[in-house]
Amino acid sequence: MAAPKRGRSASAQSKPGRSLALILIAIVALTGGMFLSGHKTPRLGIDLAGGTSITLEAVNEPGQPNAINKTNMDTAVDIMNRRVNGLGVSEAEVQTQGDRNIIVNIPKGTNSNEARQQVGTTAKLYFRPVLQREESAGSATPAPSGSPTGSASPSASDSGKGRDKASGSPSTPSAGATSQGRALTDSLKADASPSASGSPKASGTPSPSTSGGADSSTALAKQYAALDCSKPDQRATAGKAAKTDEPTVACGKDGQVWSKFLLGPVDVDGTEIKKAQATFDTQGAAGWRVDMTFNSSGAKKFGDVTSKLAQQTTPRNEFAIVLDDQVVSHPFVETAITGGNAYISGRFTQDEAQGLANMLSYGALPLSFKEQSVTTVTAALGGEQLHAGLVAGAIGLALVVIYLVVYYRGLSIVAMASLLVSAILTYLIMTLLGPAINFALNLPAVCGAIVAIGITADSFIVYFERIRDEIREGRSLRPAVERAWPRARRTILVSDFVSFLAAAVLFIVTVGKVQGFAFTLGLTTVLDVVVVFFFTKPLMTVLARRKFFADGHKWSGLDPKSLGAKPPLRRTRRPAGPTAGPVDPKEA
Questions:
Q1: What distance in Å separates the CA atoms of residue 280 and residue 277, rounded to the nearest whole number?
Q2: Are residues 295 and 427 in the same domain?
Q3: Sign of the CA dihedral 7, 13, 17, 23?
Q4: pLDDT band at residue 530, thresholds of 50, 70 and 90?
């Protein structure tokens, strides 16, 4: 029975090379990913690298003098926070200042223009029917007459052209449009119910008097005729004073071309969208799309509107999604969409689909906001604080190393090598998390990394002390290393679990910079477990076979004499009966 046990022990001790190789492969893979991503350093937060600070002022909507209150401001902060922070670790800060201002700090390295656009789109989200559309290049879609039977054949350039970032669906149905610019009902019949999210006015055949068509002599028709969306100053003012129950003009971007729109009154409010998310169509050929779910009120309105839009010809079968008076998408409708579920598809990329879903989800803020100021934040103060923090961290690390060398001597090599591996893994992962989830390293995150030095060193000390306890009991090093591991492992796991739980709770209940501290602390705690299991323990198993450590050299930190080890226990056999010896001749 002893032979199999020795065989298992030998097998167990032959595995440390695999674990060490695994750690090496992980480091090489992460390093390769870092170079492939083009990011060789962690992305820094606004306090370390500077960034952009945007101040927004809440504005009362017409007829709602009491809209600016704490509840609405808190809701707006929450929506903006979701917009700019995405997964919650990009370190953008959104907070109120006073009773009507919101401050948004966007760190350098983030796409500040995109984030500013996300934050700045603080007006209402509406669905309006398209009455007329014309590209700024001069190619106009035919203005429909009172009858929906006018010519509506799309041009090749129009039907094949992608939209801007928030769109991607073609504006006119074509033979190849089965996977472009349409939404389906909740029955998901691929050929039976294609349509798009939208909301025209409730009339099946809008009349010029109610639609404000371009052929009328109204002021709106003149405004539409004079509008040139290729000019930024005209885009900025188009439709700004429009009321929800009146037609208006607006601009929108199809790919790289700006188009102007004549839109009907609002039929569906953005607040009636219950949920919107980007998904990838694995069954059909739609690719990335945006799924929408309406509440009960919105579902009824959406069904009524799409049933009437489906009877129109282009462009009056299109439903414009208008955010901050700008058309972000105008998919067409072919059949009525009932049930409250729909999706918008087109030639979306993943980022475009997620951008549109984000606008649909968080576009209907309870207040309107205007940009009060946009300033650039320097990192001078943060840089000085970072320098002081790094100096303090270096001093602390030096003290830890000195303590390990003095107290553990040769074992300090294992501890320092493990700390180095942990630092390399932490750096590589933080660097990759920048482009992956917009993680930004700020001052509190640096503090979390410094605190992790103590947590990691504590795990090594627990294991070393268990080994030394076994040696004090009279065991040699190799069995001491194996016998000490199970007890040390339990202690390390319990300790790290408590640290990780505290970091997780702190991350959930806090916001902004404190989340950076919690995230870094949690990450380094997990890496501590990985390093101890896959590097420290295997390395100790390898070193236990070396004469310097196995023989208990006085500088190894495992000298039995220095540790006050007991002499090995020796067992002797005793005879079962009385002890037999030579017979005394006298007694004989």
A1: 10
A2: no
A3: positive
A4: very high
Question: Do residues 75 and 190 share a domain?
Answer: no
Of 128, 119, 22, nearest to 79 (Cα)? 119
DSSP letters for 478-541: HHHHHHHHHHHHHHHHHHHHHHHHHHHHHHHH--THHHHHHHHHHHHHHHHHHHIIIIIHHHHH
Length of the chain: 588
Alpha-helical segments (H) within 108-153 = 112-120
Alpha-helix residue ranges (DSSP H) falling in 14-135:
16-37, 46-49, 70-85, 112-120
| Distance, CA of 177 to CA of 396 (rounded, Å) | 64
Give the integer Cα–Cα distance in Å for 148 and 128.
18
Q: What is the mean pLDDT of the chain?
A: 74
Sheet holding 273-281, edge to edge: 273-281, 287-294, 341-348
20 and 78 share one domain: no
DSSP secondary structure letters along 188-229: --TTT-EE-S----S-SS--HHHHT-TTS-SHHHHHHHH--T
What's the CA gap between 500 and 134, in Å, rounded?
Answer: 57
Tell me, what DSSP letter sits at residue 272? G
Q: DSSP per residue over 305-344, as a string?
A: HHHHHTTSPTTTTBEEEEETTEEEE--B-SS---SSEEEE
In a domain, 183, yes or no: yes
* pLDDT at residue 111 greater than cutoff 70: no
Q: Is the pLDDT of residue 413 over 80?
A: yes
Q: Could you tell me the CA-to-CA distances from 538 to 21, 100, 462, 479, 542 in Å, in that order?
A: 10, 59, 16, 14, 6
- Could you list the residue range(s) of the whole structural domain that residue 475 is in? 14-38+379-563
- State mean pLDDT over 248-273: 87
Neighbours of 579 (CB within 10 A): 6
The residue from 377, 412, 434 where one domain ends is 377
pLDDT of residue 100: 85
Q: Before 315, cis peptide (omega within 30)?
A: yes
**Exposed (0-12), middle (13-18) or buried (19+): which is 472, by Cβ within 10 Å?**
middle
Q: Is 184 helix (H, G, I), strand (E, B) or coil?
A: strand
pLDDT, one tens digit per residue, over 531-565 is 999 999 999 999 999 999 988 888 888 888 888 77
3-state SS assignment for residue 273: strand
Do 291 and 392 lie in a common domain?
no
pLDDT of 2 higher than 70? no
> Which among 526, 354, 336, 545 has a CA at the least distance from the CA of 438?
354
Bridge partners (DSSP) of residue 292 are 276, 342
Is residue 441 pLDDT above 80, yes or no? yes
- Of residues 309 and 61, more confidence is placed in 309
Q: Which tens digit of pLDDT belongs to each residue from 279-299?
A: 888 776 668 888 888 988 889
Contact 408, 557 (CB under 8 A): yes
Residue type present at position 338: T
Please list, in sequence order, all residues whose beta carbon lies within 8 angstroms of the beta carbon of residue 574, skipping any fewer than 6 positions away.
Answer: none
